[in-house]
Design a protein that fits this description.
- With about 400 residues, this protein is an alpha/beta fold.
- The protein has two domains: about 5-255, Aspartate Aminotransferase, domain 2; about 260-394, Aspartate Aminotransferase, domain 1 (Alpha-Beta Complex), CATH 3.90.1150.10.
- It is about 40% helix and about 15% strand.
- It is built from 14 helices and twelve strands.
- It has helices at about 5-15, 40-45, 60-75, 85-95, 110-125, 135-145, 165-175, 190, 225-240, 245-275, 295-300, 315-325, 355-365, 380-394; strands at about 80-85, 105, 130, 150-155, 180-185, 200-205, 220-225, 280-285, 310-315, 330-335, 345, 370-375.
- The strands form two sheets. The protein has a seven-stranded mixed β-sheet with strand order 1-7-6-5-4-2-3, with helices on both faces.
- Strand 4 (about 150-155), helix 7 (about 165-175) and strand 5 form a beta-alpha-beta unit.
- The radius of gyration is 21 Å and the shape is globular.
């Protein structure tokens, strides 16, 4: 790979390795194990594996390695470890680096499963977790201590789309020697500059925009070579959360078109948000690309665009939100995002349903809130569909 390749070129070519057959499309190595030339060779492989030397599918695979190298190059990371799902990436990044007695500071506005890992799992094993309002730098500064091992946040929170200042929080964390771990799904690798802005570890659910077509579960942890190979890899290969070769091949194909898909989805999301912004049937339209968004200036500086996801708060609460969802003709009701199809979900009763009502309220997850992940349909068709669905609520 040339050092001066632009992101679009890296997304197509970085990390490519060809067999003796010279295939154009990356090969899928569907194998759980590898053959050694001799017993001595096997012994040496287990002592120290060199480049392109593999032991077992849970430890590494040529197709998986291509995906890891490509996404690392695209993100600007030294290395990466591909995982079985996005949550395997989140839990693996945190569990591999933390031990009893460590302290973590996290933004409270998180995806429900991320909250579960921090509130239920880490604390069960003796990790102290302090939650803050991620948009309030004073709260970060007050919470981060000399014994803080890591800070964790979603660069854009799910589902309320709060934008966290990566540079500012990273500076506060690094001043106390803490690592910065970011779930960067909503920013996508297309708009991400997280490592440049101070992140130490970035995780993605590759299920979302990287695959982008609703086919497979996957994730990836990105960071320094030392962190990935000496902290993450030992944990992941022994606990079994690695990515399958077929999934890695799907993700490689997804990376080839991700830039085109995400930019098109973002342009449509901006247009839809603007078309719905003043609608009388909505309490609010939440989209980081709108000038009215509280962190719009930050998102323009940090990403340069608002991303592919918006949220609307339908007047009339849960019943009205359900009527809106049920009247849709194009958008589908599901709980994924970053797909070629426009997908809507009602967070209060799905992804965040386990949270107490007071916690939902404090996070801004109102009864009428609907999260909308914009797909690749025609902009005018989507706007028309949303407007007729809102009319059906009346």
């Amino acid at each position: 790979m040339s050092d001066d390749w632009k992101p679009g070129t890296k997304a197509v070519h970085a990390g490519t390795k060809r067999s003796q057959f010279g295939e154009v499309s990356e090969a899928i190595f569907l194998t759980q194990g590898f053959v050694y030339e001799s017993a001595e060779h096997a012994e040496q492989r287990f002592i120290a594996s060199g480049p392109d030397e593999y032991i077992y599918g849970r430890y590494g695979n040529p197709t998986v390695a291509m995906f890891e190298e490509r996404i690392a190059a695209l993100e600007g990371a030294e290395d990466g470890f591909a995982t079985a799902s996005g949550m395997a990436a989140v839990s693996g990044a945190l569990m591999s680096m933390l031990k009893a007695g460590d302290h973590v500071v996290s933004a409270r506005a998180l995806f429900g499963s991320c909250l579960y890992v921090l509130e239920e799992i880490l604390t069960r094993y003796g990790v102290e977790v302090t939650f803050v309002d991620g948009t309030d730098l004073d709260q970060w500064q007050a919470a981060i201590r000399p014994d803080t091992r890591a800070v964790f946040f979603e660069s854009i929170s799910n589902p309320t789309l709060q934008v966290i200042d990566i540079e500012a929080v990273s500076a506060l964390a690094h001043a106390q020697g803490a690592l910065v771990v970011i779930d960067n799904v909503f920013a996508t690798p297309v708009y991400s500059r997280a490592f440049e802005q101070g992140a130490d570890v970035v995780v993605y659910s590759a299920t979302k925009h990287i695959d982008g077509q609703g086919r497979t579960l996957g994730g990836v942890i990105l960071g320094s070579t030392d962190f990935i190979r000496n902290t993450v890899e030992p944990y992941m290969k022994h606990t079994g959360g690695s990515m399958s070769p077929f999934t890695a091949w799907v993700m490689l194909k997804g990376l080839e078109t991700m830039r085109l898909r995400v930019r098109a989805q973002t342009a449509t999301a901006q247009a839809v948000a603007q078309a719905l912004e003043e609608h009388a049937g909505l309490n609010a339209v939440i989209y980081p690309g709108l000038a009215a968004h509280p962190q719009n200036a930050l998102v323009q500086r940090q990403m340069g665009a608002g991303g592919t996801v918006l949220a609307v708060d339908v007047k009339g609460g849960k019943d009205a939100a359900f009527a809106f969802l049920n009247a849709l003709k194009i958008g589908v009701i599901s709980n994924n995002l970053g797909d070629a199809k426009t997908i809507l979900t009602h967070p209060a009763t799905t992804t965040h349903q386990r949270l107490p009502e007071d916690q939902k309220a404090s996070l801004g997850i109102a009864p009428g809130l609907v999260r909308i992940s914009i797909g690749l349909e025609e902009e005018s068709d989507l706007v028309k569909d949303f407007l007729q669905a809102l009319d059906a609520v009346k």
